[in-house]
Design brief:
single chain; seven-stranded mixed β-sheet; 26% helix; isopentenyl-diphosphate delta-isomerase activity; 171 residues; Nucleoside Triphosphate Pyrophosphohydrolase; alpha+beta
Length: 171
């Protein structure tokens, strides 16, 4: 069975389900989440997406991102995917939600109602190589400088969410 995403309206109310790739081909608004993990040093854990991902392969992004399955809460899905992608789990706190739309050169469109969560983790990281090409902790200053100097090295949603994440984590 192909993975399905939860279609939503602008208020994040579920309106149906659709096969994931069809939703990305049609650019239909669907529910997603992005997890930003920090360590006790205040460094952010970034992942470089696997090179053969269906879009944004090889780009740097937040610790984990995905879509909840039909019938699954955002929180449950975030914990599931954090473990599947990065090989660990940690307590997560919701920060904010936002909607974005990005068209990619391969004809796919991300149109997501994105729930942004954060957590703290200092342990062993064991990423799935089919999901993650590389990972690293970076200081907020270093991420900010790299993002300003080379925005094309980062996913579109990371570029949009990062400033808001930093604002909420440093208040």
């Amino acid at each position: 069975m192909e993975a399905q995403v939860i279609l939503v309206n602008e208020q994040d109310e579920a309106t149906g389900v659709m096969e994931k790739m069809e939703a990305h081909r049609k650019g239909v608004l669907h529910r997603a989440f992005s997890v930003f993990v920090m360590n006790d040093k205040g460094e952010m854990l970034l992942q470089q997406r696997a090179l053969d991902k269906y879009h944004s392969g090889g780009l740097w992004t937040n610790t984990c991102c995905s879509h909840p399955l039909p019938g699954e809460t955002v929180e449950t899905a975030a914990h599931r995917r954090l473990f599947e992608e990065m090989g660990f789990d940690c307590a997560l706190t919701g920060l904010f939600q936002f909607t974005y739309r990005t068209a990619f050169g391969n004809g796919l469109i991300e149109h997501e109602y994105d729930h942004v969560l954060s957590g703290i983790y200092n342990g062993i990281i064991n990423p799935d190589p089919t999901e993650v090409n590389d990972y690293r902790y970076m200081s907020i200053t270093a991420v900010t400088r790299l993002l300003e100097a080379e925005p094309s090295q980062f996913t579109s949603w990371f570029q949009l969410a990062f400033p808001r994440v930093i604002e909420r984590l440093t208040v």
